[in-house]
From TrEMBL:
Domain Major facilitator superfamily (MFS) profile: 20-425
Source superkingdom: Bacteria
Gene3D superfamilies: MFS general substrate transporter like domains
Protein name, UniProt field: MFS transporter
Transmembrane segments: 21-40, 60-78, 90-112, 118-136, 148-168, 180-199, 244-267, 279-301, 313-331, 337-358, 370-390, 402-420
SUPFAM superfamilies found in the cross-reference section: MFS general substrate transporter (SSF103473)
Membrane topology summary: Multi-pass membrane protein
PROSITE patterns: MFS
Signal peptide (UniProt feature, chain positions): none
InterPro entries in alphabetical order: MFS, MFS_dom, MFS_trans_sf, Proton-linked_MCT
Species, as recorded: Glycomyces endophyticus
Localisation per UniProt entry: Cell membrane
Pfam families linked: MFS_1
Keywords: Membrane, Transmembrane, Transmembrane helix
Length: 431
């Protein structure tokens, strides 16, 4: 006669854990905030540098242009480097470069040093933390909610503006622009340990599948080619596509109408009309606040609607707001200007989630690197207008021609967005 074994005690239910993809996304957001901190400062620095060193608006704008251009040109190579050497390593080095370049500006005495520190060193650092980094994170760690996560991470740049720009303006008017540079340097440096602790290159590195992946998910093969070969090869393959050139063209206009013009020149343009520096900087920061909501909402819409139609609407609305801007400047902040700030701010980088989605649809596993090249066109447009607007200001005494030009270009971008064809669906199997 056997004795029945007592029933095993009931095991407590395992609490549902948050997928690691969300932790990686959260730290990536914080790192993007640190990278964005320095990118928020150029417009506030133009007048102090002009007053202290006597450099013209055109000379200072040239340094901004180098920064913006390298931010875009290095992005596809950074995306390929992340593919070859890992996200964690590349992002940590990028944050260290931002800290170095920002900190070194406090010792400069000549304009070429501004170009070196502000343009080249910080340009390469921020280029490694550009929006192609957003595409890499979303492509590797997420299957579901890609549009939403793209919107949240893209909003990290706006958060950098939100957190730092008013403080930078106060530091510039108080202790001076050098104190603001040191703050940005320390902030970027503080992000490095967080990235090293939490971020991993792929979900497979920690025994996971991407968020939303089913049981039939197969991890893509890791490219063994060099970073330069991968970046240039992706460009070569994409360059035969009509969609690539339309995306690159629209995104060039996006850059020209956002960080190239408004990001770099809104504060000095408002100052030309008698608005205090801190008030103008605070308005630019409000754009960052509103943009967080607009970009996250754009990511949500991208998961549900045709990205081409979203881009057309975004560019048309942005162009209309820029055409109205010159008549809104005044010596103080009035309701029409506040309306512009909210209206324009909702659209600031809302174009990013639909553009990433279209790159992914058309170019598959090359999508993140191809988006890096599309971002390069964004920064080329931004660099061109940042330089051009500075010289327009020196030649005419105001920025009005730049605002009108940007508004007209946005109307063109709306039309170009609708001209992008959706990729052909694979044929259904027969038999």
């Amino acid at each position: 006669m056997s004795i029945a074994a007592p029933d095993a005690p009931e095991q407590p239910r395992t609490a549902r854990r948050v997928h690691r993809a969300w932790w990686v996304a959260a730290v990536s957001f914080v790192a993007l905030v640190g990278a964005a901190a320095f990118r928020a400062t150029p417009s506030v620095f133009i007048e102090p540098l002009h007053d202290e060193f006597g450099w013209s608006h055109g000379t200072i704008s040239a340094a901004i242009s180098v920064n913006i251009l390298l931010y875009g040109l290095f992005s596809p190579f950074a995306s390929a480097l992340q593919e070859r050497y890992g996200i964690r390593r590349v992002v940590s080095i990028a944050l260290a470069l931002i800290a170095l370049g920002s900190g070194a500006t406090v010792f400069m005495t000549a304009s070429w040093q501004l170009v070196l520190c502000w343009g080249f060193i910080v340009g390469i650092g921020t280029g490694s933390m550009a929006m192609a980094f957003v595409a890499t994170i979303t492509n590797r760690w997420f299957i579901a909610r890609r549009g939403l996560v793209s919107g949240i991470l893209t909003a990290g740049g706006a958060a950098g503006q939100l957190v730092f720009l008013p403080l930078v303006g106060l530091l510039v008017e108080g202790p001076g622009w050098r104190s603001a540079s040191v703050l940005v340097s320390l902030t970027a440096l503080a992000m490095v340990p967080l990235v090293l602790l939490v971020v991993r290159d792929r979900p497979e590195d920690v025994g996971l599948r991407p968020y939303g992946a089913g049981d039939d998910y197969t991890a893509p093969a890791v490219s063994g080619s060099g970073a330069a070969r991968r970046a240039l090869g992706s460009l070569w393959r994409a360059s035969g596509s009509r969609a690539f050139w339309l995306l690159a063209g629209t995104f060039a206009i996006c850059g020209a109408s956002t960080n190239g013009l408004v990001g770099a020149h809104f504060v000095p343009a408002a100052h030309d009309h008698g608005m205090p520096l801190t008030a103008a900087a605070s308005l630019l920061a409000v754009i960052g606040i509103v943009d967080m909501a607009g970009t996250i909402f754009s990511g949500w819409l991208t998961d549900r609607f045709d990205p081409r139609h979203l881009l057309a609407v975004y560019y048309a609305l942005r162009g209309a707001s820029l055409l109205a801007l010159p008549s809104l400047f005044a010596g103080d902040v009035r309701p029409p200007m506040l309306f512009f700030i909210v209206f324009y701010g909702l659209d600031w980088v809302a174009t990013v989630p639909p553009t990433i989605a279209l790159c992914r649809e058309h170019f598959g596993e090359d999508g993140a690197v191809v988006f890096g090249w599309v971002l390069a066109s964004h920064q080329f447009g931004a660099a061109l207008i940042a330089w051009g607007a500075g010289f327009v200001r020196d030649a005419t005494g105001n920025y009005d021609p730049a605002w009108f030009t940007a508004g007209a270009l946005c109307a063109l971008a709306a039309v170009m967005s609708l001209a992008i064809r959706r990729p052909a669906a694979p044929a259904a199997p027969t038999g």
